[in-house]
């Protein structure tokens, strides 16, 4: 069944939320704790080894109730069921959206175009795991009989961001293989990777559904040319594999058909790390850990699908995000993971969120009069505290923040980890409480400062506080917990897009620039002349000088 097409701002629940917003928008978060001593208990969710504390947000229990009323009025539960059962909710491309099926049980049944897709998913996974074991164990050898030591993933967008993020995040669990990621069409980037490689011991993975993506195929051909300068065409099958649906093009490249791993049109690129696109991940951490990653995501899928909305983590996070976006007019959200392992996580979520929900046309094809997708950004803590937290604490913008932290250090370095997590907790408190004039005055008095200097400094040292944050605290960073964390944000994206009445799973906005780039490349290489605006024409002219 297609998704309902309902303008959320015309609903009764939206009107109720507007009235509620007028009543509580002047309330301070810290003051809400004084009004409700059980606020932490009322505004948290515990699930497995996750604690989600959303008590430091500009909300009350009534806010959550009203937001849930909105989701019920718009039919969110039915939409979730349609998503999981394979309805073609990506209407503009006439596709199902089933990255969730990739982590399903063998016993499940999901019908797409009259066929149960589950047996093929598990068959492909077994093939992928078998290949990985052969490479990891040294049975798959290069053209001189040496074992593979380096893996190069050649892809862009979802064929790069997910695998590179997860590989970095799970480096603690990695084996002897070194994984490199070639995404940008920048030749300097490619040559820096080539410096680190030995053609005898390198395996290249070309990830492109169509096998026509300009950046990926250009890079693949550059690596192939480099490889052939040391070997011959007949050795390509030992060193190149592909994840693609364009079988003929892959075979023409020289890749052995048995080393082609499939991509399905019901898996969008930015949600594809669970599929064959995750080959580089499975090679890096091994099939067993990759399976744990899938299982973690599957557990979050079940929680999202089956839990009451009041205790449903992705639903709650999505509704709070809508509250800030559409009622407080907050344009951005920051993601701050307090582990260097997750330093690529904000970039990964940038694509997942902004390519999905950066839409201005609703599901009926009409222009939207309200704000949709937020701008996602961030960096790891504590680095970010010394980079941009000044703006978060004393700037003029309201920026909700997700703090992500872990109770346990993987390397058991207690001294470092206690200092790291004390910063995590302190920042959430400081953002909420701030520091008032009296506190500043007492602090400066204790330093025996002259009174006139104190009066001058007070305005600069006051923190207004009332800056919202959500704390996501997890026992430890494992393949399973990472799978659950990624899945949590995937489902948050779905809920937001559904309530905003947009299609989250197409991305037509990226096509125009690609098409124009092809035309301009012809002008640069073949001296063709096309009509452009004066700025573009002069940029081309200046580049060709």
Would you write up a description of this structure?
The chain is of the alpha/beta class. Helix content is 48%, strand content 10%. It has 22 helices and 13 strands. The chain has helices at residues 12-24, 29-35, 39-42, 61-74, 76-85, 118-136, 161-169, 187-194, 214-228, 236-239, 247-253, 279-285, 287-306, 313-327, 345-357, 389-394, 414-433, 437-445, 451-461, 479-499, 511-526, 534-544, and strands at residues 44-47, 50-53, 111-112, 115-116, 150-154, 178-182, 202-207, 240-243, 260-261, 332-337, 375-378, 401-406, 469-474. It has a six-stranded mixed beta sheet, sandwiched between helices. Strands 6-5-7-8-9 form a five-stranded parallel beta sheet, with helices on both faces. Helix 7 (161-169) links the parallel strand 5 and strand 6 (178-182). Helix 1 (12-24) runs antiparallel to helix 4 and helix 12 packs across helix 13 (287-306). 42% of the residues are buried. The model has no long low-confidence stretch (mean pLDDT 96).
Short description:
The protein is α/β, with parallel strands linked by helices and 545 residues long. The chain contains 22 helices and 13 strands.
Compile the SSE list and pairings.
Layout (H helix, E strand, L loop, with lengths): L11 H13 L4 H7 L3 H4 L1 E4 L2 E4 L7 H14 L1 H10 L25 E2 L2 E2 L1 H19 L13 E5 L6 H9 L8 E5 L4 H8 L7 E6 L6 H15 L7 H4 E4 L3 H7 L6 E2 L17 H7 L1 H20 L6 H15 L4 E6 L7 H13 L17 E4 L10 H6 L6 E6 L7 H20 L3 H9 L5 H11 L7 E6 L4 H21 L11 H16 L7 H11 L1
Parallel strand pairs: 5-6, 5-7, 7-8, 8-9, 10-11, 10-12, 12-13
Antiparallel strand pairs: 1-2, 2-13, 3-4
Helix pairs in contact: 1-4, 4-14, 7-12, 7-15, 12-13, 13-20, 14-20, 15-20, 18-19
């Amino acid at each position: 069944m297609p998704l309902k097409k309902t303008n959320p701002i015309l609903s009764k629940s939206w009107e109720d939320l507007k009235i509620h917003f007028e009543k509580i928008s002047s309330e301070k978060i810290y003051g809400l704790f004084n009004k409700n001593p059980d606020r932490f208990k009322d505004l948290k969710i515990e699930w497995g080894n996750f604690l989600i504390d959303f008590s430091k947000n500009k909300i009350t229990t009534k806010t959550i109730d009203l937001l849930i009323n909105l989701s019920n009025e718009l039919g969110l539960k039915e939409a979730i069921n349609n998503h999981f059962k394979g309805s073609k909710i990506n209407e503009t491309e006439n596709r199902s959206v089933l990255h969730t099926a990739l982590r399903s049980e063998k016993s499940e049944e999901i019908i797409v175009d009259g066929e149960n897709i589950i047996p093929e998913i598990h068959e492909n996974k077994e093939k992928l795991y078998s290949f990985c074991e052969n490479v990891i164990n040294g049975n798959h050898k290069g053209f001189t009989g040496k074992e593979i030591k380096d893996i190069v993933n050649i892809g862009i967008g979802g064929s790069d961001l997910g695998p590179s993020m997860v590989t970095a995040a799970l480096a603690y669990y990695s084996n002897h293989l070194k994984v490199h990621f070639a995404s940008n069409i920048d030749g300097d980037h490619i040559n820096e990777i080539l410096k680190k490689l030995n053609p005898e011991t390198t395996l290249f993975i070309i990830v492109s559904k169509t096998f026509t993506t300009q950046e990926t195929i250009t890079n693949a051909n550059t690596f192939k040319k480099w490889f052939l300068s040391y070997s011959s065409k007949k050795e390509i099958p030992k060193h190149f594999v592909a994840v693609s649906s364009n079988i003929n093009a892959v075979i023409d490249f020289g890749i052995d058909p048995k080393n082609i791993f499939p991509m399905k049109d019901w898996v969008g690129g930015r949600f594809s790390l669970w599929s064959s696109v995750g080959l580089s991940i499975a090679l890096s951490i091994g099939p067993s850990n990759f399976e744990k990653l899938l299982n973690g995501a599957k557990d979050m899928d079940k929680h999202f699908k089956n839990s009451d909305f009041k205790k449903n983590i992705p639903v709650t996070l999505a509704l709070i995000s809508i509250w800030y976006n559409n009622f407080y007019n907050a344009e951005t959200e920051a993601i701050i993971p307090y582990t260097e392992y997750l330093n690529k996580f904000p970039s990964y979520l940038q694509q997942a969120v902004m390519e999905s929900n950066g839409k201005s046309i609703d599901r009926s094809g009409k222009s939207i009069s309200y704000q949709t997708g937020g701008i996602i950004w961030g960096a790891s803590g504590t680095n970010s505290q010394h980079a941009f937290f000044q703006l978060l604490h004393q700037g003029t913008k309201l920026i909700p923040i997700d703090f992500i932290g872990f109770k346990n250090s993987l390397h058991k370095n207690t001294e470092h980890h206690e200092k790291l997590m004390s910063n995590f907790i302190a920042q959430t408190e400081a953002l909420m409480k701030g520091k008032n004039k009296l506190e500043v005055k007492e602090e400066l008095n204790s330093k025996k400062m002259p009174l006139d200097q104190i009066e001058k400094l007070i305005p600069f040292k006051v923190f207004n506080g009332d800056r919202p944050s959500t704390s996501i605290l997890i026992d430890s960073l494992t393949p399973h917990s990472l799978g659950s964390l990624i899945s949590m944000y995937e489902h948050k994206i779905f809920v937001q897009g559904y309530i905003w009445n947009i299609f989250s799973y197409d991305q037509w906005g990226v096509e125009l620039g690609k098409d124009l780039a092809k035309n301009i490349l012809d002008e640069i290489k073949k001296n063709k002349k096309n009509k452009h605006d004066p700025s573009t024409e002069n940029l081309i002219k200046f580049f060709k000088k």
